[in-house]
Amino acid sequence: MERVFAYGTLKRGGRNHALVADRLLYLLPRYVEGFCLYHLPEGEGRPYAYPGMVPGEGRVFGEVLFLPREVLPLLDALEDEGEEYRRERVLVHTERGPLEAWAYVYLGDVGPALPLPEGVWPIVGS
Fold first, then answer.
1. Domains of the chain: which residue ranges?
2. What Pfam families is this protein classified in (predicted)?
3. Each residue's pLDDT tens digit, 24-33
């Protein structure tokens, strides 16, 4: 089993949650620290808006998805792992204590993106 920290379109109700919904074994909400969240709007090669999490001083809220290991290549393809995002281990703070999970960290330029200091996505109108 793998744990994946979802903070955007893979969360419950998100555009891409259906990719993992039937394989989801368990879900645990909470947050990671040491990251900032940005809203990346539709356009510039993006067919729809989605968020990007980058290292920084902040907190990002999301959900830990407990999934079978065979789902990781599907998520790597979705996130364009190694190009647009990098999958790395993060420490997630949950109501059951801290745990490690994979997270997709954005590799692009966040200069033109909208910062989300509350650490929550989606934003209204996204």
1. 2-115
2. GGACT
3. 999 999 999 9
Q: Are 125 and 116 in contact (CB under 8 A)?
A: no
Q: What is the model's pTM?
A: 0.94
**Under CATH, what is the fold of the domain 2-115?**
Hypothetical upf0131 protein ytfp (3.10.490)
Active-site choice (2, 33, 57, 79): 79
Q: Please, which residues have CB within 8 angstroms of residue 47's CB and are 6 or more apart in sequence? A: none
